[in-house]
Each structure stands twice: as C-alpha cells, then as structure tokens.
Amino acid sequence: MTQEFTTTETLDVRGQNCPMPVVKTKQSVDDLESGDVLEVLATDPGSESDLGGWADSTDGVALLEQDQTEMDGETVYTHYVRVE
After folding, report:
1. 22: alpha, beta or left, given left = phi > 0 and alpha = psi -120 to 50?
2. Active-site annotation holds for 77
3. Whole-angstrom Cα distance, residue 40 to residue 13?
4. Where is the UPF0033 domain (predicted)?
5. What are the φ and ψ backbone dihedral angles of 33, each rounded to 5 degrees?
6. Nearest to residue 75, comparing CAs of 41, 51, 52, 49?
7. Does domain 13-83 have CATH number 1.10.3720.10?
8. Amino acid 43: pLDDT
9. Least C-beta-crowded within 10 Å: which of 4, 5, 29, 48?
10. What span, in angstroms and rounded, lies between the C-alpha atoms of 43 and 62?
C-alpha cells in the first residue's frame, strides 16, 4: 500500500456480500464533501471488481487504491474512494 492521503471516514461492510458493499459505499459518499476519502473494509472478494467498476462509471468519485490483508483470520479488502 502506498497511501498518500488522509482517510476522512471508514465504512465497515465486512460480512456483507454483493451488492451491499457498493450500495453502502454510495450512501456514505453521498454524505461526504469534495476531497474527502472514504476507507471501505470488505470481506467479499468481488468487492475489488465491484467497487472498481462502480467508481469508473460514477462521476464525482475516484478509486485511489485497493489493498488486501489478513485481519482476525479472514481476508479483508480495503478500498479508498475519494469524492471529487
């Protein structure tokens, strides 16, 4: 991970499957301001492609980075989304 930004808020959607990580991310982004960065924690492996596709097709957001780590015995996919 080469994080060069400050996280404004963290959204924990661990244990939730498609489409909830994207739905909850969109809801959270709607409450943020331009320049804010949302950190999304997910356990759904599909969240990598789902959030990437959503960010690519959504005006006003940018997917900055995605990372994968082991946390409490499970794989956690961390996504960083910036409001443009």
Report:
1. alpha
2. no
3. 7
4. 11-35
5. -110, 165
6. 41
7. no
8. 97
9. 4
10. 21
pLDDT digits (tens, 9 = 90+) for 22-52: 999 999 999 999 999 999 999 999 999 999 9
Alpha carbons 36 and 54: distance in angstroms, whole number? 17
Please tell me the total number of residues recorded for the chain in this structure. Answer: 84
**Average pLDDT of the chain?**
95
Alpha-carbon Rg for the chain, nearest whole angstrom, is 12
Active site residue: 11, 18, 20, 32, which one?
18
**Calpha distance 84→70 (Å, rounded):** 30
How far is residue 47's CA from residue 33's CA, in Å, rounded to a whole number?
23
Written as six digits, the tokens of 13 are 């959607």
* Beta strands 37-42; 61-71: pairing state: unpaired
In the chain, what are the domain boundaries?
A: 13-83
Report if pTM > 0.90: yes
